[in-house]
Amino acid sequence: MKRLFERNYRPVESFTNEIQILTRMRHRNLVSLYGCTSRHSRELLLVYEYIPNGTVSSHLHDNKAEQSSSLPWAVRMKIAIETASALTYLHASDVIHRDVKTTNILLDNSFCVKVADFGLSRLYPNDVTHVSTAPRGTPGYVDPEYRLCYQLTSKSDVYSFGVVLVELISSLPAVDLTRDRDDIKLANLAIRKIRRSELCDLIDPSLGFQTDKRLKNVITSVAELAFQCLQEEKELRPTMSEVLEVLQTIESRKDEAGSHEGIDFHPEVGVAQSYVHPSVPNTWMMPRRHQQTL
Question: What is the pLDDT of residue 136?
């Protein structure tokens, strides 16, 4: 159940917005809305299906020493694919979530994903290029181009999902004030580590990245995909449907042997390029404006 305590415009707007979005959405990886009070009631209440296993954030970051082993790589990959599936469905339904983060990704007892909290979501008709609106969202996840230009697009969710991918491979929080100034945002830290081929410093060592060659290939491929999602210019990011397709392909090829040479940074074009998962065409993984120059 979700209770909104303040009776001013923003909570009422969020309450109404969430009802409008969820009553028209049906997907196995979206939380179901069971009922609500009237917007004129003394309390604003939304009643959801009960999701018993907490959030992805709680499994990754709370009591980390105890919890990291409870999310082995297979589960993290499942979370990534199911979250991408939910977001792809939303975008196909002309909805931008606008607050994609690990605290809004719930898990049931089988570790199936339920994406929640649509208070900031916006309808995004397919005949418009963007929605002009003041930036909203959670620090560490907000699309930098949206924050700068006040133009919300489906690629804003793609950027936020890129942060989620990095959390899944690193077990690090999206924002950490104890890190060096330039690395407070996990997105900045991840981009720098990938550019410098320093994945070993980014990936959670409990995942076995160093000891399992096939797993190393898979996680490296996911890191490369995250890098593409985190491009500052939205035109350089894949669509959510492309992200889902690549994740499913990586997952389907996880048991195949393959060579791995690491991710190198090409300073002229600003992308990771020397390693691309064998299942992913090299031309897709490169930002589109640079494909002809490589």
Answer: 83
